[in-house]
Amino acid sequence: MRPPIDHGTVLIIGAAGGIGRELARLLSPRVRTLVLVAREVQELMPLRDELLLRNPTLGVMLEACHLDDPHAVDALFEHLERHYVRVDVLINNADHTISGLYAEARWKRIEELVHANVVAPAMLTHRLLGPMLERGRGGILMVGSAAARLFLPGAVMFAATQRFLDGFSESLRLELEDTGIPVTFVAPGPLALEPPLPDEVTPFFQLSLHQCAREALAGFERGEALVYPGLGHRWMMRLLRLLPRSFKRGLGRLALGGLRRKLLLHPSSPEAGAPPRPVLLAGGEPSSAS
Ligand SMILES: NC(=O)c1ccc[n+]([C@@H]2O[C@H](COP(=O)([O-])OP(=O)(O)OC[C@H]3O[C@@H](n4cnc5c(N)ncnc54)[C@H](OP(=O)(O)O)[C@@H]3O)[C@@H](O)[C@H]2O)c1
């Protein structure tokens, strides 16, 4: 069950940077058309120029789509339909992240995150699956995060939405098992920033964006259900599965300790519209905010 990449049309959501851009580079010599999506078309233009320079016969469409807007996916599809674009493979790679304590986040931002990370991927998949099933070919690559397997205070909604993507992909994969449409979930760990931050501390098992994209694509083409890119990360995640849930809580508490120290050192005022403090800053007891 190989996804129809060669000479096909691949839609990449979140192609302006990171893994999405690397996937576009890897796919460009093989596909007929790439439909690249980001929030702003201008962000995609340098990539289009680079790809066309190396592959003059490649078809490249650039589309702007704010996934946190509930109507954006409909507008994107209307546009694709008007141009008779038939998508063979969906790569869902965009993610929306907010960091900080959950109680301090504005509800509007939480809603936007849920739209971008949950509603949009589900909707995109739903819109594309019908035609893929009619043709008896297609493929869906969901790029998520190893956060799907962790407890992440400071990124509560992000971790929760990654669990959604994991469960969604695995369950859908079973529904589609005999249809010729593979579904793969990719769960990377820490990736190298490009360009790197000057004072960046390199985490264990950090992988380059290129290597991550290469392994994600290779796993997808082998029809794997789950890809952990990078040997070290893969073994780490396998080991984590064998450890009790309490171990993961311990890791989460460590992360929370780091976040509290950061907040105490660099206190930022809560966002406009956020619920009033007190906030759980130092230890288990609520502390009144100054
Ligand atoms: N980087 C890491 O260390 C890491 C680690 C583990 C997992 N991952 C996962 O890998 C995937 C890609 O991450 P990345 O770091 O490569 O991403 P990135 O460099 O931040 O790029 C994300 C892409 O998504 C687009 N995007 C973000 N929010 C959007 C929205 N609301 N509507 C439309 N487009 C939106 C961005 O468009 P704009 O350019 O317009 O903002 C950009 O093209 C994500 O699912 C992430 O969770 C990343």
UniProtKB/TrEMBL annotation:
<dbReference type="InterPro" id="IPR036291">
    <property type="entry name" value="NAD(P)-bd_dom_sf"/>
</dbReference>
<feature type="region of interest" description="Disordered">
    <location>
        <begin position="267"/>
        <end position="290"/>
    </location>
</feature>
<keyword id="KW-0560">Oxidoreductase</keyword>
<dbReference type="GO" id="GO:0016020">
    <property type="term" value="C:membrane"/>
</dbReference>
<dbReference type="GO" id="GO:0016491">
    <property type="term" value="F:oxidoreductase activity"/>
</dbReference>
<dbReference type="InterPro" id="IPR002347">
    <property type="entry name" value="SDR_fam"/>
</dbReference>
<comment type="similarity">
    <text>Belongs to the short-chain dehydrogenases/reductases (SDR) family.</text>
</comment>
<dbReference type="Pfam" id="PF00106">
    <property type="entry name" value="adh_short"/>
</dbReference>
<protein>
    <submittedName>
        <fullName>SDR family NAD(P)-dependent oxidoreductase</fullName>
    </submittedName>
</protein>
